[in-house]
Amino acid sequence: MAFFKTHYYGGIKKYQWLTIPLALHGIVCRADGQRVEVSIGDRPGDPVFTITDLLPHLAKDQMVKKLTEAVEGEQLNLLAGGLPLQGGEKDAAVKMNILTLLHQNYGITEEDFVSAELEVVPAGPAYDVGLDRSMVGAYGQDDRVCVYTSLRAILETAPPPAPRWRSLSTKRKLAVPAAPACRKIPAECRGGHRLKAPSPV
Questions:
Q1: What is this structure's pTM?
Q2: CA of 129: how far to CAs of 126, 136, 137, 142, 145, in Å?
Q3: 8 Å CB contact between 89 and 96
Q4: Less CB within 10 Å around the terminal CB: N or C of the chain?
């Protein structure tokens, strides 16, 4: 089998990511300078990825661990495939088959992953939850609901005397300085009070 190494960020419950359908989204910058958008797992007929787990009868030691220790971050490797490339090297035939498929479909090579920004997310659309359809079931709702409501508030207010803006950025949970684009947001005036642009964390 061939796996993609991953690195999680944010406060996730790692055990929730096992054995569910996962999709891969992002951008790969190829060596020739072309940006390639990658989206696998959310369109009808797409294959999906998953993170494997132990079968119940093999998980005796795992089952007695605390939830925070039962699944380690290093175990969250994405199952990418299991068929070997015909005529490929014995120890790398499955990997070569996956790389061949990626090159055929996206024109990318193994070296291009150095300049890639890819995210693994639960596959599938958002769903109405409950018989009364009163809730939404989808990943990332904590951030998305804030973005949606703040945007609606801006769009539905009367024309303000001064510009109003909302800063949205990703990777906010990483312990690194704010994105360069955020640091360059110009100061604006609102209601006669000057707002300071975000500074690095």
A1: 0.74
A2: 9, 6, 6, 16, 15
A3: yes
A4: C
- DSSP line for 82-149: -PPPTT--TTTHHHHHHHHHHHHHH---GGGGGGEEEEEEE-S--EEETTTT-EEE-TTHHHHHHHHH
Residue 88: exposed, middle, or buried by beta-carbon count in 10 A (0-12, 13-18, 19+)? middle
Query: 2-122: which CATH number, 3.40.50.620, 2.30.250.10, 2.20.25.10, 2.40.160.60?
Result: 2.30.250.10
Q: What is the pLDDT along the chain (201 residues), one digit of tens a residue?
A: 999 999 887 778 899 999 999 999 999 999 888 999 999 999 999 999 999 998 889 888 988 999 888 888 888 999 999 999 887 777 789 999 999 999 999 999 999 999 899 999 999 988 999 999 998 888 877 777 888 888 888 888 888 777 777 777 666 555 444 444 445 444 443 344 444 444 444
Domain ranges of the chain: 2-122, 125-157, 168-201
